[in-house]
Amino acid sequence: MSAGQFRRGGLRATAGPRLTRTPESNPTRDLNIPFSQWTKEQVCGWLEDYGLGQYINLTRQWVESGQTLLSATPQDFEKEMGMKHPLHRKKLQLALRAFTSKVAEKSSELDYIWVTRWLDDIGLPQYKDQFHEARVDGRMIQYLTVNDLLTLKVTSQLHHLSIKCAIHVLHVNKFNPNCLRRRPSEEKHPSPSEVVQWSNHCVMEWLRAVDLAEYAPNLRGSGVHGGLIILEPRFSSETLALLLNIPPQKTLLRRHLATAFGALVGPQAMQEKREYGNATGHVPLTTTAKVKPKKLGFTQFSHLRKKKPDESADYICPIDSDALTVNGVSRLLSPAHRGFSSTLDRQVEKRQPAAVKAQSNVPDNT
């Protein structure tokens, strides 16, 4: 058959990128060989599998072996590979660090296609294009910072909290890709430990079950999911009423929502939310508040290139090696969670400080 003749079979034009090539099916790459010894073609093939195929042409001109990437700086990625997107550089750095540390992270099994589905589940589908373009995968999720989210055009404070709580649920469930429930259980009174795993769709189904079906569609794109409802102490029935666009004059309807909300989250969580709301200096959660980028002060310029050892507070949801259970829900202990919950703070004080994992080598997006 000549080259110009039509041939049946092969892959359909609509086939996804993972069908055309997968790391496991690539015969030219021996995963037992250290990354530093990979050839130029093996490195380029890996970049394509990893969602960074647009940089292959320049990489082929620059890279001699895997060691070239391991020895490079983020500035080298930008200059030699034309990698202008800060989150692409961060993605590459995290992957290279995983090759050298040889520590298997469950989050690395979740690719950037899965992350777009996860955004659907937590009620933030409007950011799918930005996350997809940045190739944000499971490994990147656990190292996202406030400024990373702002780069992804996520400016709403409520949406930042939504993502923070959703990442926390992933941590507690060891990055199980199916930990969020897309359908509520048959039980009429689910426990808080079940509700914390509810997707945005589950919350909308619950609204229909408590006779608020006409307001349920207002939760699309709101970022409301079970993790946010249970774990964020400032998220109250008033916050939910605002998101549902229930008019303030409909007092009976709002009272009905407050009763149903209290039954959903349980007495302990409701007490915690009340204590947090009554605390001095409490700022109510609004639907319009925006997050401002974290700016470096004059004294911090010397640390631009050499990062400080403890940067866990910069992450949206810091990783910690310990956890405790509050209200039947597992919560991670971290210095960044101080003030997150009055009940949690008291329980943390009764325990020894957790040993926080060293994260000094985690790259930022510079």
Automatic annotation (TrEMBL):
Q: Which UniProt keywords apply?
A: Coiled coil, Phosphoprotein, Repeat
Identify the Pfam families for this entry.
SAM_1, SAM_2
Question: Where's the SAM domain?
Answer: 38-102, 115-173
PROSITE patterns in the record: SAM_DOMAIN
Q: Which CDD domains match?
A: SAM_liprin-beta1_2_repeat1, SAM_liprin-beta1_2_repeat2, SAM_liprin-beta1_2_repeat3
UniProt keyword Coiled coil, yes or no: yes
Give me the Gene Ontology terms describing cellular component: cytosol; presynaptic active zone
Question: Where is the sequence biased in composition, kind Polar residues?
Answer: 22-31
Q: Which InterPro entries match?
A: LIPB1/2_SAM_1, LIPB1/2_SAM_2nd, LIPB1/2_SAM_3rd, Liprin, SAM, SAM/pointed_sf
Q: In its UniProt record, which GO terms are filed under biological process?
A: neuromuscular junction development
Region called Disordered, residue ranges? 1-31, 341-366
Question: What's the family?
Answer: Belongs to the liprin family. Liprin-beta subfamily.
> What is the role of this chain?
May regulate the disassembly of focal adhesions. Did not bind receptor-like tyrosine phosphatases type 2A.
Question: What is this protein's record name?
Answer: PPFIA binding protein 2
Q: Which organism is it from?
A: Fundulus heteroclitus (Killifish)
Lineage of the organism = Eukaryota, Metazoa, Chordata, Craniata, Vertebrata
